[in-house]
Write a structure and sequence with these properties.
The chain is mainly alpha-helical. It folds into 2 domains: 5-37, no CATH class; 45-101, no CATH class. It has 5 helices and 2 strands, in the order H-H-H-H-E-H-E. It has a two-stranded parallel ribbon. Helix 3 packs across helix 4. The two termini are 17 Å apart.
Length: 102
């Protein structure tokens, strides 16, 4: 259950793929529909915004990733990441326990 921000991020990635990599619009449209259907729950970014901002300021890291950390913290779960950049940022902080590498 990611923040609903995941849909904007997915649409942005698909836009780039259509615009710069030649992905067909029909394929991108199917992909965004499939992405939306893949999640049982999308958590409103509005409910996470204050905490995400506080985490971003504390870590000196872009706020977009911190929405996912805020959700993991709120739900008492772990954030699994394929991108190790946020893992490195959190490594020696209290947020390290919320993170796991894919």
């Amino acid at each position: 259950m990611p923040p609903d921000l995941v849909m904007a991020e997915t649409a942005s990635a698909l836009w780039k793929a259509v615009r710069f990599a030649g992905l067909e619009l029909a394929t991108a449209t199917e992909a965004i529909a499939a992405a939306g259907a893949a999640f049982d729950e999308l958590v409103s970014a509005r409910t996470l915004a204050d905490r995400a901002l506080a985490i971003a300021l504390e870590l000196r890291h872009p706020v977009y990733d911190c929405f996912y950390l805020a959700l993991a913290q709120a739900r008492g779960s772990r954030l699994v990441r394929a991108d190790d950049r946020l893992l490195r940022v959190c490594a020696r902080t209290r947020f390290a326990k919320l993170m796991r590498s894919l």
